[in-house]
């Protein structure tokens, strides 16, 4: 029978043996897959390093863009020393009992949402699909953004050739374990000050004094503006990261900016939602689902009261919801009943089910003006209702609020209606009844506003940062990168942006 098969050369067997041994050694040594299959079927070669601060991935794992398509769009990612790897195993932020580093699995997306059963305790009612959705922590954007930059098609190792320089440091993750309480300035500010000193000592910084550098700080701006004079009260929350001379030169992306500050020091970008698709088809399917969703509630609210009436507008909202006719006007998730309330409001399925069943979603100020809930409302196609100017997308998410299709068609963005504004003072003074105000909108007006909200969904979500996205769709990251590069380009061209820059403690003229 041996004569029926061709003989295999011995050298071929040797080659197979050597290749097999090499692959086995690699798998045992790096302990992570070399390949990953995306939802669109695109194979992505994963970088070996387990540290998010590693250098950019090899170009051969992406389709190489033409040099012309990257002209003016190159980004250089700073290779940080290990001491600035905030979530490295054994680091202070990682070891803290208050650390959120362990919640950053799946490149920051968090755990995959478990499929909802027929009798799900999450109250999902089949609204949320079983793929593309994650239990994403609200502070995860630093990690998500970092992984997206690593897949950016126009990365360069040459900072001189770059239009912008990205600093992959996680200031919010570092601050989180000691955000509030009796921590002195050394604990609060020490790590970020060391990072700024190191950055400003590099040749790449010297070229423009850091004005071509940008980074993400995934908390509100207020958390990085804490200034304590000598002998002052050292309690309170936050650190002084954004008031340091070096950070004032950079473009910093936060969840909420100070809208009254001129010139603007930092720029607000959307909170991450729970939806991180890997294809444009997933997004289109979700948008269609939100257009067809029955919405029995007139308005909805997810949140909690504050002790001693410190946020009176929330008390009025709860009162309005409690007074509404049962099963007709108001749906709510009360997050204020201890552990049970906290668990309830941290269920993405329950939250999205409520918002997807409501016409309007109330967004009063909380600990700050912006709430992650406002982004959740957009994902659910629920018309946001704002009660303070500083909570509106027009004031905070200017880059993402704009509708490029309207601009291309010659339609003013001012003509778009996608939210309702009710002054909280009018509610507190009894001049406006929330239910009556929202009931005045006709079905046609509601449908028109909802469609505008649903069209905003792509601009307010972040794609899955682990895979190549299938389809042509710009998300919050794509918009942010383009706007950051455009801003830095204006700075390089000498445009006066009304900003004061600093170098070794000295003021540099605006626009220089």
Helix content: 25-40%
Q: What would the average pLDDT be, to the nearest integer?
A: 82
Q: Calculate the terminal CA-CA distance, rounded to whole Å.
A: 84 Å
Looking at the structure, what is the overall shape? globular
Strand-residue proportion: 5-15%
Q: How many domains comprise the coordinates?
A: 2
Poorly predicted ranges (pLDDT <50, ≥5 residues)?
Answer: 1-6, 25-63, 502-512
Which structural class do you get from the secondary structure elements? alpha/beta
Strand order in space, largest sheet: 3-4-5-6-7
Largest sheet properties: 5 strands, parallel
Beta-strand segment tally: 14
Radius of gyration: 25 Å
Q: How many helical stretches?
A: 19
Topology record:
Layout: H1 10-30, E1 35-37, E2 43-45, E3 75-77, H2 92-95, H3 141-150, E4 164-166, H4 171-175, H5 185-200, H6 203-206, E5 213-216, H7 245-249, E6 251-254, E7 266-268, H8 280-292, E8 297-303, H9 312-323, E9 330-334, H10 338-345, H11 348-355, E10 358-363, H12 372-379, E11 383-386, H13 393-396, H14 398-401, H15 404-408, E12 420-421, H16 424-428, H17 434-439, H18 443-460, H19 476-492, E13 501-503, E14 506-508
Parallel strand pairs: 3-4, 4-5, 5-6, 6-7, 8-9, 8-10, 10-11, 11-12
Antiparallel strand pairs: 1-2, 13-14
Helix pairs in contact: 8-18
InterPro entries: Exostosin, Exostosin_GT47
Family: Belongs to the glycosyltransferase 47 family.
Keywords: Glycosyltransferase, Golgi apparatus, Membrane, Signal-anchor, Transferase, Transmembrane, Transmembrane helix
């Amino acid at each position: 029978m041996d004569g029926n098969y061709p003989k295999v050369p011995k050298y071929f067997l040797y080659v197979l043996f050597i290749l097999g041994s090499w692959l086995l050694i690699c798998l045992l040594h790096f302990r992570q897959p070399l390949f990953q299959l995306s939802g669109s079927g695109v194979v992505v070669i994963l970088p070996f390093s387990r540290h998010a601060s590693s250098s950019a991935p090899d170009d051969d794992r992406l389709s190489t863009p033409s040099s012309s398509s990257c002209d003016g769009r190159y980004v250089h990612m700073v290779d940080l020393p290990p001491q600035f790897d905030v979530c490295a195993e054994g680091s202070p932020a990682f070891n803290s009992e208050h650390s959120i580093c362990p919640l950053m699995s799946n490149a920051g997306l968090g755990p995959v949402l478990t499929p909802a059963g027929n009798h799900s305790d999450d109250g999902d009612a089949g609204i949320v699909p079983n793929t593309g959705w994650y239990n994403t922590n609200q502070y995860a954007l630093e990690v998500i953004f970092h992984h997206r930059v690593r897949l950016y098609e126009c990365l360069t190792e040459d900072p001189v050739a770059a239009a912008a320089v990205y600093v992959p440091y996680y200031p919010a993750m570092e601050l989180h374990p000691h955000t509030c309480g009796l921590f002195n300035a050394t604990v609060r500010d020490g790590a970020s000050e060391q990072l700024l000193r190191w950055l400003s000592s590099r040749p790449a910084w010297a070229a423009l004094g850091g004005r071509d550098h940008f980074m993400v700080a995934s908390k509100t701006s207020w958390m990085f503006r804490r200034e304590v004079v000598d002998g002052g009260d050292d309690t309170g929350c936050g650190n002084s990261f954004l008031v340091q001379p070096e950070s004032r030169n950079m473009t910093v992306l936060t969840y909420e900016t100070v809208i009254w500050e001129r010139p603007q020091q930092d720029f607000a970008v959307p909170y991450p939602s729970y939806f991180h698709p890997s294809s444009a088809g997933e997004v289109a399917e979700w948008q269609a689902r939100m257009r067809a969703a029955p919405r029995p509630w007139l308005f909805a609210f997810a949140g909690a009261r504050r002790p001693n009436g410190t946020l009176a507008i929330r008390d009025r909202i709860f009162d309005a919801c409690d007074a509404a006719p049962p099963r007709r006007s108001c749906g709510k998730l009360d997050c204020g009943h201890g552990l049970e309330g906290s668990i309830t409001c941290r269920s993405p399925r329950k939250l999205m089910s409520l918002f997807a069943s409501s016409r309007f979603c109330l967004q009063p100020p909380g600990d700050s003006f912006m709430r992650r809930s406002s982004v959740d409302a957009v994902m659910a196609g629920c018309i946001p209702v704002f009660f303070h100017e500083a909570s509106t997308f027009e004031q905070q998410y200017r880059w993402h609020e704009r509708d490029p299709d309207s601009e291309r068609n010659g339609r003013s963005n001012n003509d778009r209606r996608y939210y309702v504004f009710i002054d909280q003072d009018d509610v507190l003074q009894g001049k406006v009844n929330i239910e009556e105000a929202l009931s005045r909108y006709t079905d046609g007006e509601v449908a028109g506003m909802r469609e505008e909200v649903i069209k905003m969904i792509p601009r307010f979500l972040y794609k899955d940062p682990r895979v190549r996205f299938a389809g042509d769709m710009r998300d919050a990251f794509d918009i942010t990168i383009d706007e950051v590069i455009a801003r830095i380009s204006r700075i390089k061209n000498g445009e006066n942006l009304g900003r004061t820059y600093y170098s070794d403690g000295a003021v540099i003229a605006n626009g220089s």
